[in-house]
Description:
single chain, mainly alpha, 0% strand, globular
Amino acid sequence: xxxxxxxxxxxxxxxxxxxxxxxxxxxxxxxxxxxxxxxxxxxxxxxxxxxxxxxxxxxxxxxxxxxxxxxxxxxxxxxxxxxxxxxxxxxxxxxxxxxxxxxxxxxxxxxxxxxxxxxxxxxxxxxxxxxxxxxxxxxxxxxxxxxxxxxxxxxxxxxxxxxxxxxxxxxxxxxxxxxxxxxxxxxxxxxxxxxxxxxxxxxxxxxxxxxxxxxxxxxxxxxxxxxxxxxxxx
Length: 234
């Protein structure tokens, strides 16, 4: 039981940190580009409670976990008013990219910390040192997965805002029309399709390959700092 609790804690803490910084990054970049909406609504906070969505953060992931289905969810989106941005189309792409970009930076921080933990605790790691190293490993994977998962070109993910900004205006308007159906599309593509056609799974085919590829580079960084090879768990 204690081992299970430690493993759960070593996953929950990195997940909370990754999600909070992801959401706040959107608001920080939006404010820098002229939209203070997130600041006005007190969402530029690192307090996790301000970013919890009762359904997307708690209820849905819990139900999926109990049903042994792929777990996904979302935090309460940081409010962004694209029409308060100086250049709405371009700036909305930058705001959207800020979340995944921040997660990739955090993953690099996690790799550095992992390398230092292995370097300093290589003689006698102990349970505390091992727990900290497990947190660092999970921190790398959670941030990398969150980055690429959110880059899916599917409303309401960040990738959809980037695609919308790249499309010609007429096509962008039609693409934006999918947003009201985002949740339904998400359920169909992420749960229904993989259940009946596992080989067509979006996460398996589109998200995991880049996650594993860049994960190898983060673990190479950790290994270089530690001075010993650190195998990437898969």
